[in-house]
Structures are given as C-alpha cells and as structure tokens.
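hey so i finally got around to running the thing on that chain from the lab meeting. sorry it took forever, my laptop kept dying and i had to restart like 3 times. anyway pasting the input first so we r on the same page abt which one it is
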Amino acid sequence: MRILILLILFIVLFFSKQQADSPHGKDFKISCATCHSSKGWQLDKEIYSFNHNTTKMPLVGQHKVINCRLCHSTLVFNQAKSECIQCHNDIHQATAGSDCSRCHTPESWLVKNITEIHQRSRFPLVGAHRTADCILCHKSETLVRFDVPGVNCIDCHRQVFVATTNPNHIQAGFTEECTKCHPMNAFQWGGAGFNHNFFPLTQGHSIPKCVDCHKTVAYTGLSKDCNTCHNKEYTLTTKPNHTAFNFPLTCGICHSLSPGWTPASYGDHDNQYFPITTGRHKGTWNSCEDCHTNPSDYKQFNCIICHKDAHRGRNYTDAQCYSCHPRGSSGG
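ok and heres what got predicted. didnt touch it at all, straight out
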C-alpha cells in the first residue's frame, strides 16, 4: 500500500513539473501572449508581436521572409545559430574565410562590388591587377574557390622573373621583391622605379637604360668613380691632353653634371693657381685656351699673352709683372 502511494505521488509530481516547464526552455521569459492566443498553441500571426531585431540575429533582407523553422529546428529558440556558416554551406570551401558578410549581404548572394571589397583585403587591386581576370590569380578547379598561390609578387610572377634577360635578374642577384623596382600601380613591367639615390641619376647621368652603365649581368659592385665609365673620354681628350698633363681622374673637379663635358670649370683655380673668377680677370676669358695657348702644356702661360702692350711693348716676365701687380689684384 505504501509503495502504491509513493508511485502515485511520483507520477503527480512528474507531470506537474512537465506542465510548469516551458517547451521553449527553462530560461525562456517571454510571455506566451506574445505569440499565442486562446485559439490554441499554434503561432497566432494576428497577435504575434515579438521583435526579432532585439536578438543577436536581426531579421533583414531574405531573413525576413524565410520560415522560422529553417533556423529554429527545435522549440528551444536560443539554440538557434547566428553565424552565417552555421546555417549556410561554404561553397568557397574555406578559401574566402568564414565571415560571409565580408562579401555578401542578407539581400542577395550576388556580389556587385568585388573590386571594392578586394581593396580591403591583404592584396589591394591597383595598376594592372585592377583589370586582370580573376582566374589568373585564383586558379582553382571551380569558379567558387578562391585559392591563391600567395600575396607576394614572386608567387605569381616567378616565371617572368626567371625569364628576364635584360637585365638578367637571376645572375644579377636581384631581390624577389618586385616592388623594389616595379611600382604596384603600373600597368607594364617597363619603367622600373629602382631607388638609385646612392648614385643620383640626374642631369648628365639621366641615362635611358641601365645597361648603359651596367655592362655585365652582375649589377652590383660597379664603382662610383668617374673613370669607371668615362675613361675613354679622358684618354681621347687632347684639348687639353688629360693624360699628358696627368689630370686627376676625379672628373667632378672641372666638369659638372650638366649635359655635355663643356664648359669645364676648374673649381680651385683661384686658390691653387691664379684667380680667374674674382678681381680684374673675372669675365675676361671664355675658355682655358684664352690663356693656355699651348694645348700640349697647360703649365705654360704668362701675363703678356694678353697684356703684351701694357708697357710700350716691353715683354716683362711673370715675376716682373707680379712685383707690381699682385695675383688677383682688383686694380692690376
């Protein structure tokens, strides 16, 4: 008898608990009247007033018109997932990441601004990449996979790097960072923009081709000394004869970077030899030969070349001239 009473009490308590618990879960706190009426336990759309936009998953776009059960597979509503990937199959097979919202919106799966989206990726599309066909980089077995060999230039352009012979990138030991010479916003490989500031290519050195100076495939180790490139001009020059006079090989002493070798301007002539850019001699000569009349020996020059009639035809020596007219005298 006592066992029968305990069994009846257990059954009563069990069914009482089942009636007290909500089928939507024990933590469900929304009033039944939000969705149900006295018509029955089915959802009454006439009185339904729950605002789904207060949840982690606002209903916008296509989510507004789908059947609730597509997301809520059970009556325990908080078990529904809010991440795209938890409801939608990843047709890109993880090649585009798991955040669908990077490209897609709830309005449609179609993507109309793929170039703009790509600008926010780890590889912005600029220059020739902006007009390139997607499949040239995303080489996959399907059009919905976006596999890439990498985001470094060499990952796609190694064949071009290896095949280039003018200059030979391999033998010259060029870096595989193509952007060191080729700007990303360019549309062609030509017009390399290598930073040559260690030897500025300006004025006379503004040469059209690298090979004008780099005669071998090894672009490194080229000397900055003028004579490295201009020894031929130095040797063949006879007016004056640079070799005979043992002129220094530092061409910059006389020659500037202005296009052409002339006019030459010996910068230290005033202090080391004779003032020609100050005093009375400033502006009285056009070329070295005006004073150095012997092209085979520039050491030969004297005052009477220009001033031979200054003292009634007397041919004074330089020493005699200097005794009265100091070098560089403003009144000599």
